[in-house]
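Final report, Chapter 2: Outcomes

The project's central promise was a pipeline that accepts a single protein chain and returns its three-dimensional structure in a standardized token representation, suitable for archiving and comparison. That pipeline is now operational. To close this chapter, we reproduce one record exactly as it appears in the project archive, with the input sequence first and the structure output second.
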Amino acid sequence: MSINISIVKDYDEMSRRAARIIADAIRNKPNLVLGLATGSTPVGCYQELIRMHKEEGLDFSRVITFNLDEYIRLPPTHPQSYRYFMDENLFRHVNIKIENTYVPDGLSADLQRTCKEFEELIKRAGGIDLQLLGIGANGHIAFNEPGSSFDFRTMVVNLSERTIKDNARFFKSIEEVPRQALSMGMGTIMEVRKIILLASGVGKAEAAAKSVEGPITTDVPASILQRHPNCIFILDEEAASKLVRKAR
């Protein structure tokens, strides 16, 4: 097994290509179980999906979604919570049923129980058909930081100092960035049927190259995707700039 690589010109083309794959999957299976990511990378993809819904009739009415992660102790009304992000950037603009959208509950009084229930919800839905991923500059997937076991399921994680610094740009100050989150583990992610990973910009080039061409190591969590049977990396030219082997 190896990762399929698609190199595109820029962020906009990356977003359109990912959206087309997702749209085709929904049309082929209207009750698709779709895994979603947050952050700046997938926003363009979500904007294209919204356009497809409004202009081409892409139907989300039977789609079920699961988000990768959520900050702990950040209410869903907070502009930096991932529930708020998904509502603002996708859910409110398409005809998806909110009760079919699952984001881990970071306000739960029993976080361990919440993690187990999230896993059960995924199983009850029949597993995730298609998972959209981004990648951190240190190779993290969701909040699976370097050193995380590849066997972990949905869990409470402590954010690394680098991730806290990377995410500080979204908050008024670095002190406001939560230090913990709920996150799908790599064990859960590796069970999905198909994965699309998006990376844009030179800041992601090293992580992309190590994930695709480097050894499989917990030091680069995304490197485990080399073992996934159906995984595609869609990289813009800058994100692909450090690859030794390049294909389109």
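Archive annotation: The chain has seven helices and ten strands.
This record, like all others produced under the grant, will remain available to the consortium after the project formally closes.
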